[in-house]
Design brief:
alpha+beta, 11 strands, single chain, 3-stranded antiparallel beta sheet, 10 helices, about 15% strand
Length: about 425
Amino acid sequence: MQRVSTGMMNNNVQYNLRFQEARLNAANNQLGSQQRIQSLRDDPIAAGHLVRYQSYATRMEQFGKNAQTLADQYQISEGYMNHSLQIVQRLRELAVTGATGTYTPEDLRNMAAEVDELLGELVQNANAVGPDGMALFAGSRVKGTPFEVEMGSVPGAGSPVISAVRYNGTIEENNIEVDERAFMQTQRAGNRMFWAEPQLLISQRDASAFAASADSVIAVDGVRIDIHAGDSLYAVAAKINDSGAAVKVSVDPVTHGIVMQTTDARQLWLEDVSGTVLSDLGVIKDAGLNQRPPYNMADSVRVTGGSLFDSVIALRDAMFRGDAEAIGGSVLGSIDSGLNNLTTRLAENGALYERAQANVARNAQTALNATKLVSREGDLDFTKAVTDMKMMEYVQQATLSTAARLYQNSLLNYMR
C-alpha cells in the first residue's frame, strides 16, 4: 500500500522523467557514435564477439602490411639479383672468348681489366641495402656489410685489386608473420645467393675410434643436432644425414676421416653449440680460439667449392697470366655453376614475391570479411534508432505535459 501525499506525485514524475532522460541520452549516444553497444551490459555476448572480431580485423590488417613490406623487399632484391645475373652472363662471354686461344696474352690482360670492374660491381650488388638501410643479403646481421673485400697485389695488375671476398653475414633469416602462425623470410643469406659450387670438406683426422664423451649439440647449416654420450663416428654421420640439413656426410674408407658436402651451392656452416664433437672429429677449430663460422675450419681439413667471387677472381687472374687453358677449364665450369645457382636463387626470390603478393590479397579479403562481422555485431540500425528516439521524445513531452497539469493540484483539492 502506498501512502498518498503531495510529494508522491512529484517523486513518481521525477523518477519517470529521469528514466526517460536516461533512455533518450543512451539513444543520442548510439546515434552520435553509430555504435549499438555503448557498454558491456548492453549486450554481453555480442560485446564479447565484437572484441574478438575487432582484434582479428586489426591483426589481418597488420599481416597485410607485413606481407606488402616483404613483397617490396623481394622486388628490390630481385633488381640487384637480376643485375648480378647480367654481370655473370657478361663474365661468361668474356671467359668463352678468352678460352678460344686466338687472343694474345696482351689481349687477355686487356679483358682482365673489364673482369676486375665487373667483379667490383658484383660485390657492390652483394652488399646492397634496402630502403630501410638494412643489408639485403646478410642473413640476420642486417646492419653490417655482408661481404668484406681484401685488396692485394696480383701478377699482371698495375695496382692493388680485389684478392679475396669474405662473407661476414649469417645464415639465420629474420621471419615476419603474414598470417596466424605463418611466417615468411626477410633477408637472405649471401653465402647461398652468391655461391658457385657445392662445398666439400674432407677431414684428415682418423676418427675411427671416436666416441662422444658427453651429451652435446652441434649445428650443421643452422640445424641443431643432439649428440649423445657414446655416439660413434657413424652415429654422428647418420644423425647429420637424417637432420634435414642441406649437407651429406660420409666416412672416407681409407683415412677414416669425416667427409661433408653441401647438397647445393652454398657455404658450409659448422659449429659446436655445446661440447666439442666437431672439434674432436677434426672438422673445426677448438672453441677456445673464438672463431665463428664459416671461417672456423680446422687447419688440417681440405675444402673445395668456392663463391661466385672466387670464380671471377680466378678468371681475372688467369687472364692476367694469359692462361687460356685454365680459363676454358675449371674457371669456365665454376662460372657456369655460379650462373646456374644465381638463376635458381632468382627464381626462388620470384616465388617468394608471388607468395607475399598472394598473402596481401588474401589478408585484404579476410580483413574485409572481419569488418563485416564487426559491423553486424556492433553497428547501429540507424533507421530503427531514429524511430525509437523520436518515440522517446514524444513520451518525454507527454510526461512533462502530464506533470504540468498534476502540479496545479494538491492533496487539498481531493479532500474538498
